[in-house]
C-alpha cells in the first residue's frame, strides 16, 4: 500500500509541509487499525499519521470496531460510567431557567449521554460507527450517525463533550470549527484525549530505539491518527478561536485499559505514570475551553 511520504504530509495544526518520518505503521495488525506513516512537524511539534490517499478512516469503525477486545470494558463498564460522571460533575452550570443542552461527539453506545441525562442535561450524540449508533438508539437515546461537520445546522448546545475522539480524526481543525458552530456564545467544550508528552510515550520511544516496538505500535499504530499533547492541543483550540479555560492532566486509568493487558504490563505502566506525575508527564488530558461570547468582550 502506498502511503503519503513525510515530505508530502500537511500538518493538521499549522498546515506546513515541514515534517519528518518517525515510524512506519503502514502494515496494520488488527482490522481496527488505520495504517500510515507517523510523522512529526518540525514547525509546530505536532505528531500525526500521514495516510495513503486511498485510506478511508471510517472503514475502521464497522462491526469489527464494536467487537474488538476491551470495547465494552472501556466504553460501557462501571469504571467508564464513573469517569463520565466525574467529568460532568466538574462542569460549572450557569444560572439559567432552562435545561442545558449537551452534545456528545463520538458518543458510541450512549453511556455518556445516559450519564448526562442523569446529571440534568438534555443530551444527544453523534457517532461515525453505525452499529454503535444503533445500540444507542436501542437504549432510547437521540444519536445521529455521521461526522460532526455534517450537523452544524442543528440547534446550538450549551456543552459539547468529546471523550476519546479527537485523536481519531485526520482533520481536527475542521472538527474544532464545527464544534464552535454548534456551541452557543459562551458555551463549553470538554475534551478527553491522550497526552503524548507523557512518560509512558517517552518510554515506548526509548524501547523502540532498542528494537522493542510493541509499545510504540500500541500507541501510534492503532486507529489514532493525531497525537496531541498539553502544548499542541491548546494551540489547536487557540487556532480554532476557543478560549482555554483549563487543562487537567491525570495518569492512565488501569480500570479502563482499552484492550486486554497483562497484570505485569499494567504494573509497569502504572509505575512509569507514577514517576511522570510530579512533572505532569502523564497520559490522560482533560481540557475545557469556551466559545467566546462577543457580548462579554464588547
Largest sheet: 7 strands, mixed
Mean pLDDT: 91
**Which architecture would the CATH scheme give at its second level?**
3-Layer(aba) Sandwich
Structural class category? alpha/beta
Please give the CATH class.
Alpha Beta
Order of secondary-structure elements: EEEHHHEHEHEEHEHHEHEHEH
Gross morphology is: globular
Strand content: 15-25%
Key structural traits:
Rossmann fold; globular; 298 residues; 32% helix; alpha/beta; 11 strands; seven-stranded mixed beta sheet
Description:
The chain is of the alpha/beta class. The protein has a single domain (58-297), classed as Vaccinia Virus protein VP39 (Rossmann fold). Helices cover 32% and strands 22% of the residues. The chain has helices spanning 63-67, 71-76, 78-89, 111-118, 130-138, 172-182, 199-209, 214-220, 232-239, 263-276, 294-297; strands at residues 19-25, 36-41, 47-50, 101-105, 122-127, 143-145, 157-163, 183-194, 226-227, 243-250, 284-290. A 7-stranded mixed beta sheet has the order 6-5-4-7-8-11-10, sandwiched between helices. Helix 6 (172-182) links the parallel strand 7 and strand 8. Helix 7 (199-209) packs across helix 8. The protein starts with 18 loop residues before the first strand and ends with a helix.
Amino acid at each position: 500500500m502506498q502511503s503519503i511520504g513525510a515530505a508530502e504530509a500537511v500538518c493538521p495544526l499549522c498546515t506546513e509541509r515541514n515534517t519528518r518520518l518517525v515510524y512506519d505503521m503502514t502494515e496494520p495488525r488488527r482490522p481496527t487499525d488505520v495504517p500510515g506513516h507517523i510523522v512529526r512537524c518540525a514547525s509546530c511539534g505536532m505528531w500525526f499519521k500521514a495516510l495513503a490517499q486511498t485510506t478511508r478512516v471510517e472503514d475502521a469503525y464497522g462491526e469489527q470496531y464494536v467487537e474488538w477486545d476491551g470495547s465494552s470494558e472501556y466504553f460501557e463498564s462501571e469504571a467508564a460510567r464513573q469517569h463520565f460522571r466525574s467529568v460532568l460533575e466538574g462542569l460549572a452550570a450557569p444560572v439559567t431557567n432552562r435545561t442545558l443542552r449537551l452534545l456528545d461527539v463520538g458518543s458510541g453506545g450512549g453511556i455518556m449521554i445516559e450519564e448526562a441525562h442523569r446529571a440534568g442535561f438534555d443530551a444527544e450524540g453523534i457517532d461515525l460507527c453505525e452499529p454503535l449508533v444503533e445500540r444507542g438508539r436501542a437504549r432510547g437515546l437521540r444519536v445521529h450517525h455521521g461526522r460532526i461537520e455534517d450537523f452544524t445546522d442543528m440547534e446550538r448546545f450549551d456543552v459539547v463533550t468529546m471523550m476519546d475522539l479527537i485523536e481519531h480524526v485526520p482533520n481536527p481543525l475542521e472538527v474544532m470549527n464545527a464544534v464552535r458552530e454548534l456551541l452557543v456564545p459562551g458555551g463549553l467544550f470538554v475534551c478527553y484525549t491522550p497526552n503524548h508528552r507523557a512518560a509512558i510515550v517517552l518510554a515506548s520511544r526509548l524501547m523502540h530505539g532498542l528494537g522493542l516496538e510493541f509499545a510504540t505500535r500500541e500507541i501510534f499504530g492503532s486507529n489514532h491518527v493525531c497525537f496531541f499533547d498539553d502544548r499542541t492541543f491548546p494551540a489547536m483550540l487557540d487556532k480554532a478561536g476557543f478560549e482555554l479555560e483549563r487543562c487537567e492532566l491525570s495518569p492512565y486509568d488501569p480500570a479502563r485499559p482499552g484492550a486486554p493487558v497483562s497484570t505485569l504490563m499494567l504494573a509497569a505502566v502504572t509505575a512509569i505514570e507514577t514517576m511522570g506525575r510530579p512533572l505532569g508527564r502523564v497520559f490522560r488530558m482533560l481540557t475545557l475551553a469556551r466559545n467566546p461570547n462577543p457580548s462579554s468582550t464588547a
